[in-house]
Design goal:
By secondary structure, this protein is an alpha+beta fold. 42% of the residues lie in helices and 30% in strands. It has a single domain, classed as 2-Layer Sandwich (Pantoate--beta-alanine Ligase, Chain: A,domain 2).
């Protein structure tokens, strides 16, 4: 006589396979969310660095050689910026390196941008 249906072992094996598949899907979904948050942070930090350099350019500023820093907020995320101003072989130019880090993760450089400023007087400084 043939019985219809599944045995208890078959049902348990099917449930175990389903649980493993759901756990893998949940992990992949969590990694995707984490990755998109990191990408958002990097994008906002990049915009912040570009804004700092654009501000120097728009103001025709000629900052002193050295390092300075400050805090900002972009997209609701508090960040810290640091600018390193250095001389170049051509005295009409200054190199600006801007590093942006999230305030809650100061060891992580979310963005780094380098650019050059031209002396507003056009002569030697």
């Amino acid at each position: 006589m043939k019985k219809n249906g599944f045995t208890l072992i078959e049902v348990l094996v099917a449930l175990a396979i389903l649980a493993i598949a759901l756990a893998a899907a949940a992990r992949a979904s969590g990694m995707s969310i984490s990755g998109s948050e990191r990408l958002k942070l990097r994008l906002l930090a990049s915009w912040s660095a570009q804004n700092r350099l654009a501000e120097h350019t728009a103001r025709h500023s000629w900052p002193e050689i050295g390092t300075r820093s400050g805090d900002l907020e972009q997209g609701g995320i508090p960040m810290h910026w640091e600018e390193r101003i250095s001389a170049t072989p051509n005295t009409r130019f200054r190199r600006v390196e801007i590093v942006i880090t999230p305030q809650d993760e100061p060891q992580y450089q979310a963005a780094q941008l380098s650019g050059y400023l031209v002396s507003p007087q056009g002569g030697h400084q």
